[in-house]
Amino acid sequence: xxxxxxxxFCLFALASLPEYGIGQEKRxxxxxxxxxxxxxxxxxxxxxxxxxxxxxxxxxxxCEGEFYGGQDTIRFxxxxxxRLIRDYHIGSVQNMGKxxxxxxxxxxxxxxxQEVARExxxxxxPVIYGIDGVHGANYTVGSTLFPHQLGLAATRNPKLAEATGxxxxxxxxxxxxxxxxGPSLDxxxxxxxxxxxxxxxxxxxxxxxMGDAYIRGAEGEGLGGPYQIAVCPKHFLGYGTPFNGKxxxxxxxxxxxxxxxxxxxxxxxxxxxxxSIMINSGSLNGVPCHIxxxxxxDLLKGELGFEGVVIxxxxxxxxxxxxxxxxxxxxxxxxxAVNAGIDMCMEPYDESFAVKLVELVKExxxxxxxxxxxxxxxxxLKMKLGLFEQTMYPESQYPDFASEAFVEASFQAAxxxxxxxxxxxGILPLSKEKKVLxxxxxxxxxxxxxxxxxxxxxxxxxxxxxxxxxxxxEALQTKLGKDxxxxxxxxxxxxxxxxxxxxxxAxxxxxxxxxxxxxxxxxKPSDIEDLSMPAAQRELVKALAKTGKPIVLVLLxxxxxxxxxxxxxxxxxxxxxxxxxxxxxxxxEVLMGDYNPNGKLPYTYPRHTGSLYAYDHLRxxxxxxxxxxxxxxxxxxxxxxxxxxxxxYQGLEVSPLEMSPEDSLRISVQVTNSGPRAGMECVQLFLTxxxxxxxxxVKQLKGFEKISLAxxxxxxxxxxxxxxxxxxxxxxxxxxxxxxxxxxxxGPLSQEFSLTQDIISGAGAH
Length: 766
Ligand code: BGC
What we know:
Elements: H1 2-15, H2 31-44, H3 47-53, E1 55-58, H4 78-87, E2 92-94, H5 103-120, E3 128-131, H6 149-155, H7 158-174, E4 179-180, H8 204-219, E5 230-231, E6 234-236, H9 255-262, H10 264-271, E7 276-279, E8 283-284, E9 287-288, H11 293-303, E10 309-311, H12 319-322, H13 330-340, E11 345-346, H14 352-363, H15 368-384, H16 404-417, E12 419-423, E13 436-439, H17 447-450, H18 472-480, E14 485-488, H19 499-508, E15 511-517, H20 535-545, E16 551-556, E17 572-575, H21 583-591, E18 647-655, E19 658-659, E20 665-673, E21 679-689, E22 700-709, E23 714-721, E24 728-729, E25 734-737, E26 740-746, E27 749-755, E28 759-763
Helix pairs in contact: 2-15, 3-14, 3-15, 4-5, 6-16, 7-8, 7-16, 8-10, 13-14, 16-21, 18-21
The structure holds beta-D-glucopyranose.
């Protein structure tokens, strides 16, 4: 009953979130007007002014002290501010320093930058401020922090991704920031990579659907209002699947695989109007993406028709010299990158890019027309955002910043993300009468709930944690009363702290809740040597198990850290990803049965560090040492997630069973809540192509729908698959569906059907 109430309340809460921007007067001009204005402005600009527009500089380059000085107080250095904005005409500023800023501080800093641009430069072109908003407007004090994208993917609820986009936009705009570097559309099939939590996981379709929803939320009806931001999908292309698992390291993927698995979310984002895209910091098939003309100019801007701004990643043009070794000096790096099609250089530290670019154009090694193309794109974005009319809206227009409704949306996202992976002998939900020991590095930490990009880049500093947010321990104490909850941390991330004390307290408790986790980290600091959960944390669980008390593991981690030696010791396992500031409360709700979990894994959880598979692997990958097909044996499969109730599937119908190229496949299935509690279930549709000229994946997700059922209630869920769903990309880069047998599978049910004729499209499109 409670659950039902909660579902209704939350659906109401999401539905009642204002559609910001709708009905608001747009400051945006029409397409023709914009392009006329852009051309007129461009015609008046000097080469130096154009080169300056193409720089995206770090805020700290305008401030007192060293860039990485870690200043306790961030203050403008007027000389630097004037030099860069006035003298070098720099057109874009980004990011922050050591600590997050309040709304007022942001508005002051950005307002002052705009003032210098407006009043001290010849043409008064506004600056565009960009920032990372990975799970909310995470660098503004007090903003709503959501689950990271991986958790959103586990919810399988696009409405929650849309709400995240919408609220991030609102709260970024409240801070005067109109441009956010996200969403991450990196499909990640490399489980060792440290930024998996920032992605929607390993599946192309989920990434596309959730990415689209986020963009819909963030951009609303179009740019140019007080509540919409420009998004910047990233990192084009292949970034999420580095060959060796380390961040920013080489990706080796054939073009037809890139097109089939990695490109579609970007194609869709472009179609939805994404006005900027960030480039992959690493290399693709040996060529650093930042100099890959085929990738940026031919594919992205040409074939996909992307008309927005292509921005480099952090310092990645200068990195072409020392890191990638494809340019003998910075001059050559700038030439290669701009000629490849980069429009804006995220050069955090200084104006060197602009200076070099001017020289290159003067000597004729970068065409002036290429610079014009880049600046045209940048000015168009600024105009679409309405920055020429108004760089910031009054603070009073943002009364809902961090409001209850926003926090509720984040809480709901956290609840729906939680994925129950094991529940033996009904250990969960826990009885409220029981005494629990709460232990583990993640048990009493807001940082382990929020991960990286939380007030600071690393997310590890505790000084900037929000007051009033509850850790798992605090949320359980609130629910059960302090007398029923004991606590010992047990371990740090990699070292024993007081395992012995935890074991002693376990003796006095009825149940142990061990919150294990992965310390917050991103980019290079997130590289690891071993995918196993650190030994100290596993040793803690082994020591606790000796008490004979039942153990429930709560996992707060980005990557699926291998736990095969302790999994048998746990009666229950709850995956929480990085659920954000409301995660502690959400975990307590699920553990105590006040919320029925419904998340589904967005990746394949490996059993062994040497067996890393994606769910849509090839059958040949399943061959084992005895030449059988038993090698695919993950700890938990992609799409897996338990509930406190049971769902039964029946009556799968697929029609027509002989499909011609003109047909669409209609699929229906009846789902019944056959258990004792209300609950939500994500109905997932998988497709298998039985034989194809390119070895087909064993299955692919082609549809999902989340439904809510009372005990005993049934619902018929319908899907329609067009012929494009049957296609793959062949080595000639054509989307093709080959005649033959296919299988649709939903839950335990499956149905074979056939395609009667081949269908071939050209390169790129479906
Ligand atoms: C990251 C990007 C991020 C950018 C700006 C880079 O190092 O790879 O994802 O948007 O920094 O902070």
